[in-house]
Amino acid sequence: MFTDIIKEATLQYHQQTEKILVGKMKSMRSKQDYVDLLNYFYGYFGGLENHIERYINASNLADYLDRRKTSAIADDIEALGAAVPDLATDEELPVIDNYLKAFGALYVIEGSTLGGQIISKMIQQHLHIEDGKGLSFFNSYGDQTEPMWTSFKEILNDVAMTPQDEQIIIAAANETFAKFKVWLER
Ligand code: HEM
Fold it and tell me: Could you please report the per-residue DSSP string of 31-83?
């Protein structure tokens, strides 16, 4: 299945991204540090979603609106008393000029909901957040995270119709990870 291939093909970048984030979480001492982390996600995912939605909408992904993350991140930043930062610029983002590349980028965003569950638990413990305030983005779809991921993978398998499509989606996913890594290391 294509989703097995893309998982393998992006594994190295996933590991690198995970390592950077775990490092950031371990050095987190205050709510401001957490706001800084949310700001990274807001700027990058927010810019990316604007590009993605030129090619993906309810016509090719029925529940696309439910999968948008930017407003949840903004709500979290505001719940912690901060203001949202600027979005990443075009040069800081992967090139998304067709729907296949948009699906490659969305694969990275949707996959982050799986790690998000782990991240939210780590932050909750680390910063002793008891009311869950400011954790909506990393909690992602809550107990629906697994079914939402499964249904996204089914669509992705249908979208990739030829080996050439598969290569375009994989390259876009890897570029999305690569530029996020640069963004996180700024
Ligand atoms: C501390 C940070 C992170 C941890 C601990 C983590 C952990 C995980 C785990 C446990 C899975 C599920 C693996 C499986 O079911 O086999 C996963 C999948 C995934 N994660 Fe992360 N993750 C992190 C950050 C991120 C971030 C920031 C992104 C995107 C920017 C991301 C993208 C993905 C993707 C695309 C998948 C799906 C892989 C597949 O195709 O099955 N992860 N992650």
Answer: HHHHHHHHHHHHHHHHHHHHHHTTT-STTTSTTGGGG--HHHHHHHHHHTT--
Atom 40 of ligand 1, nearest CA residue: 7
> pLDDT > 70: what percent of the chain?
100
Token duo for residue 35: 């706001």
| Whole-number Å distance between alpha carbons of 136 and 92 | 26
- For the chain, list residues with pLDDT below 70: none
Pocket test for ligand 1, best of 114, 140, 169, 180 (most atoms within 8 A of CB): 114
Tokens 């700027």 label which residue? 43
| Residue 53: Cβ-neighbour burial (10 angstroms; 0-12, 13-18, 19+) | middle
Q: Which helix (H) or strand (E) holds 19?
A: helix 11-26
Task: Give distance in angstroms: CA of 179 to centre of ligand 1.
Answer: 16
pLDDT for res 145: 97
Domain 2-184 has CATH 3.20.20.80: no
